[in-house]
């Protein structure tokens, strides 16, 4: 239980989620690291169809982002609430991040049948996620 603005609230205080790092890959994909320590995959195409995000259909605009006060922003006028951003992301296994070699990262579903330690040791370019391919763009 805690007090917020003079009101007693049952539950635990949840720390405010913040964006601490982000890296655009390609095809409107981005790796985003949050203040809870998680790095997750964001598919920017999920924003298409919402008028405020229409400029992001241009890949160069999407790739030219900034982190302003721990919020992901574009063009100093477009942003996305960090909690909404988090809800639009997928888990990402950072152990398999081979971006420094600028090689594609193959994404696969996270389950015991398709992603094993043996498979991981044979192919370091396999990440645990959804079945997409996420090539890393040059920095």
List the helices and strands and how they pair.
Elements lengths: L1 E3 L2 E3 L9 E6 L4 E6 L4 E5 L15 H5 L1 E4 L2 E4 L3 E2 L2 H6 L1 E3 L13 E5 L7 H6 L3 E4 L3 E2 L5
Parallel strand pairs: 10-11
Antiparallel strand pairs: 1-2, 3-4, 4-5, 5-9, 6-7, 7-8, 10-12
Give me a quick take on this structure.
The chain is mainly beta and 139 residues long. It has helices spanning 59-63, 82-87, 117-122; strands spanning 2-4, 7-9, 19-24, 29-34, 39-43, 65-68, 71-74, 78-79, 89-91, 105-109, 126-129, 133-134.
Detailed description of the structure:
The chain is mainly beta and 139 residues long. The protein folds into two domains: 92 residues, NE0471-like N-terminal domain (NE0471 N-terminal domain-like, 2-Layer Sandwich); 45 residues, no CATH class. Helix content is 12%, strand content 34%. The protein is built from three helices and twelve strands, in the order E-E-E-E-E-H-E-E-E-H-E-E-H-E-E. The strands form four sheets. It has a four-stranded antiparallel β-sheet. This is DUF2442 domain-containing protein. InterPro entries: DUF2442, NE0471-like_N.
What are the secondary-structure elements, in order, as H or E?
Answer: EEEEEHEEEHEEHEE
Tell me the Rg in angstroms: 17 Å
CATH superfamily of the largest domain: NE0471-like N-terminal domain
> Which class of secondary structure composition applies to the elements?
mainly beta
For the termini, the CA-CA separation is 46 Å
Which architecture of the largest domain per CATH? 2-Layer Sandwich
The total count of helices amounts to 3
Helix content: 10-25%
Number of strands: 12
The largest sheet is: 4 strands, antiparallel
Low-confidence segments, given as residue ranges, are: 102-139
């Amino acid at each position: 239980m805690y007090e917020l603005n003079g009101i007693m609230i049952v539950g635990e205080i949840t720390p405010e989620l913040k964006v601490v790092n982000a890296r655009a890959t390609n095809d409107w994909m981005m790796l985003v690291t949050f203040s809870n320590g998680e790095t997750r995959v964001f598919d920017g195409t999920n924003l298409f169809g919402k008028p405020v995000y229409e400029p992001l259909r241009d890949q160069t605009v999407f790739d030219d982002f900034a982190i302003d006060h721990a919020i992901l922003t574009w063009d100093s006028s477009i942003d996305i609430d960090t909690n909404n951003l988090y809800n639009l992301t997928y888990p990402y296994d950072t152990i398999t991040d081979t971006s420094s070699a600028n090689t594609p990262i193959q994404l696969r579903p996270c389950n015991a049948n398709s992603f094993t330690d043996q498979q991981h040791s044979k192919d370091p370019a396999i990440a645990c996620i959804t079945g997409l391919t996420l090539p890393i763009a040059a920095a």
